[in-house]
Amino acid sequence: MENYICETCGVQYELAMEEPEHCLICDEERQYINPNGQAWTTLEELVNGEYKNIFHFEELGLFSIKTTPKFGIGQTAYLVQSGGFNLLWDCITYIDERTVARINELGGIQAIALSHPHYYSTQVEWAEAFNVPIYIHEDDREWVMRPSDKIIFWSGESLELHKGLVIHRLGGHFKGGSVLEWKDGNEQKGILLTGDIIQVVADQKWVSFMYSYPNLIPLPAAKVRQMAATTAGFQFDRIYNAFHGIVKENAKLSVQKSADRYIAALNGTLFNT
């Protein structure tokens, strides 16, 4: 019996005697099956391989955690330290004894929260290693490939995990797609950790919004307008996304301007071509 891991998205499945036929996370229009075919691995194989996690101090109370060489989607997880409460925001697949020891040196974690299913990875392994709950919006329940009693399916539009740490459901990329508002981050000016529910783009003064990033399927104008209007009520001046993209300042304005540009492009008023 093994908990197989999809090599394309890095999501771990519940115990099985044989590899699944295909990855349910990848086999839909927001993701993709590798053109070379479905491939599986296990955490044991990864730990016995060449992988390691790199911790990087981003700013006071915030560390990024990234696996090298790249595995799966290649996202970044973040360790948020706020008022004696440590939160792991989003997950990466690779976890080993060295990673656990390093996080414990930094005060451990009290909870895990996820932006959306593409980053569920080995979330249960992480939760069991630290004996903590996992917070996932109930709208994305169907995408949990490895069930666990560690998972708490929260409902509604927001959930305060700790003073000044609030998860908000924005939807968009996934129905339960969520972002983390960290009010005390960035010297109390606030930080928004977005996964890719809001995506920082190459010109890091701007962001974007998509239903599918690899397949370039946009979101409807009305949904983008709703997402931007919701974030206008949050406290933040900086954004970190899942790929280490950072809007360093005036991030709230960047979201509003970017939404306006996106909607204008969809409506055919941004340019003539």
Query: What's the CATH superfamily, by name?
Result: Ribonuclease Z/Hydroxyacylglutathione hydrolase-like
H-E order: EEHEEEEHEHEEEEEEEEEEHEEH
Q: Which CATH architecture?
A: 4-Layer Sandwich
The unreliable regions are none
CATH class: Alpha Beta
| Broad shape | globular
Overall structural domain count: 1
Task: Report the CATH topology name.
Answer: Metallo-beta-lactamase, Chain A
Strand order of the largest sheet: 3-4-5-6-7-8-9
**Largest sheet features:** 7 strands, mixed
- From the N-terminal CA to the C-terminal CA, the straight-line distance is 56 Å
Structural class: alpha+beta
* Radius of gyration, taken over Cα atoms and rounded to an integer in Å: 18 Å
What is the strand tally? 19
Percentage beta strand? 25-35%
Roughly how much helix do the residues carry, as a percent range? 10-25%
- Helix tally equals 5
